[in-house]
Amino acid sequence: MKKIESNHISKWRIYGETMISQWIIVIIFLAYWFWTKRSFKDLFSFKNPIFSFQTEFLIALGLGVGLSIVMFVLIISFSKTIRKKVSEALTDESIQFLLPTTLGERLFFLLIAITAGVCEEIIFRGVMLYYLSHLQFELSIIVIGIISSLLFGIVHLYQGWKGVFLTSYLGAVLFFLFVGTGYLLVPIVLHFLIDAKFVFLPNKKTLKKNNSL
């Protein structure tokens, strides 16, 4: 896949177009959803979850995941060895140009993380699970999960085939969390936290500068 030169790209424009396009798709879909007399519960919940959790447990789980990510970011910030490892992991130019570098870009990217967490989970988990489970022929929950996860990976083709594989895997995890807990809010929050980490991680240029000290 051809690499995109970062100096020919306006990240602000990409961020804005990404947010606007995703929200437009979701708003149009929600308008159709309610026009066809479906409820929020049909979209944001799964009737027969694999596990049965209490709300308090889900809140505690979310806080635990959030604190774990915060601790991970703090460890990276103060460890030169780990910063070097992260620098090596972020050498793929196919996605490097998208990562925020300035304070303004980081704040904007936080909105991107919220948008991706909400919109992509509604589309690839909520919508696909509902419609694929209401076809004229029956599909198993595993097949539905594979289909939605592969499609989720394919829309990230701009990250290269490695990115498609990793996002497909992530999509499968998020799908499992949805059907496992019965609440779409769980993968929404996790998806947001995963994307939001780039707001706090040092960027590639900063890492190179620090590693050279």
Q: Could you explain how this protein is built, in words?
A:
The chain is mostly helical and 213 residues long. The protein has one domain. It is built from ten helices and no strands. The chain has helices spanning 11-35, 40-44, 55-78, 80-89, 93-96, 103-132, 141-154, 160-181, 185-200, 204-211. Helix 3 (55-78) packs parallel to helix 9 (185-200) and helix 6 runs antiparallel to helix 7. The longest helix is centred in the middle third of the chain and has 30 residues, at 103-132. The chain is globular. The model is unreliable at 1-8, 86-91 and 209-213 (pLDDT under 50).
Shape annotation = globular
* C-alpha termini separation: 34 Å
Low-confidence stretches: 1-8, 86-91, 209-213
Domain module tally: 1
SSE pattern:
HHHHHHHHHH
β-strand number: 0
Mean pLDDT rating = 78
Beta-strand level of the residues, as a percent range?
A: under 5%
CA-atom Rg in angstroms:
19 Å
Oligomer: single chain
Layout of strands and helices, then pairs:
Elements: H1 11-35, H2 40-44, H3 55-78, H4 80-89, H5 93-96, H6 103-132, H7 141-154, H8 160-181, H9 185-200, H10 204-211
Helix pairs in contact: 1-6, 3-4, 3-9, 4-10, 6-7, 6-8, 6-9, 7-8, 8-9
